[in-house]
Amino acid sequence: MSKIRPIPHVPSAALKSVSSPWPFAQWGMDIVGPLPAAPAQKKFLLVATDYFSKWVEAEAYASIKDKDVTKFVWKNIVCRFGIPQIIIADNGPQFDSIAFRNFCSELNIRNSYSTPRYPQSNGQAEATNKTLINALKKRLEQAKGKWVEELPGVLWAYRTTPGRPTGNTPFALTYGMDAVIPTEIGLPTIRTDAAKQKDANTELGRNLDWADEVRESASIRMADYQQRASAHYNRKVRPRNFKNGTLVLRKVFENTAEVGAGKFQANWEGPYIVSKANENGAYHLQKLDGTPLLRPWNVFNLKQYYQ
């Protein structure tokens, strides 16, 4: 009976916010798709988000392999913003291949992987993906195959829109000044007029001072935002903990469902044995014969097995 019981939707582990010490030290990466086929059969987005500034890089592909991820990181992250400390991604083969791991190791980049079937553990990438897809939907309406053409405009809008956690735009936190938007081209503004009149070195010094101030302010505001978000989420948590050796069931997903079971498919599969617990609420499991599962699983997708 344990395997057919309903799946609970109440969080079972406290939310731990992930923050970055400075711009471009930590990036979250993810793949979005498949999307409606565009020219050259492009239907996937490779997205990277800086955890501090919320700056986003994204490119469209027909398919995404580990070599594409490697080239993307080199061109869009390393060559533009320097070598990051950490790249957080899911357990997809594109991010977990030997080739990509070796590339990161050579640059002293640490790979961190979110637990399978628990997108909250790479929350920054998931939040960015949702925003980009919603923006593309608003732009396209019926012309869904033109999303690749609209992508640069969507990225520009995202980069120049103030974010709630930081109170500033990704552009300002990245470059130390606000972007000159189209309305400032034809119509003089205080900023563009001042830039023509002032000495360039003086203006540069002012912008550099402003950049430090706005980044410090954004860091404080983001920490406060994350603390309040965690407190709100954690009020709903009903903790579940498992000791080593405990028998547990794992939630059934589409790719693990029994073929032909249809509506009679059990909600849980197993049992498995808990072999190790991580601090982030994930557990390493093994089969009853001692064979370990490849990845740790979040407690949200597990429940204790009663014989």
From TrEMBL:
InterPro entries: Integrase_cat-core, Retrovirus_Pol_polyprotein, RNaseH-like_sf, RNaseH_sf. It holds the Pfam family rve. Residues 19-178 form the Integrase catalytic domain. SUPFAM superfamilies: Ribonuclease H-like. It comes from the Eukaryota. GO terms for molecular function: nucleic acid binding. GO terms for biological process: DNA integration. This is Gag-Pol polyprotein. It comes from Vitis vinifera.
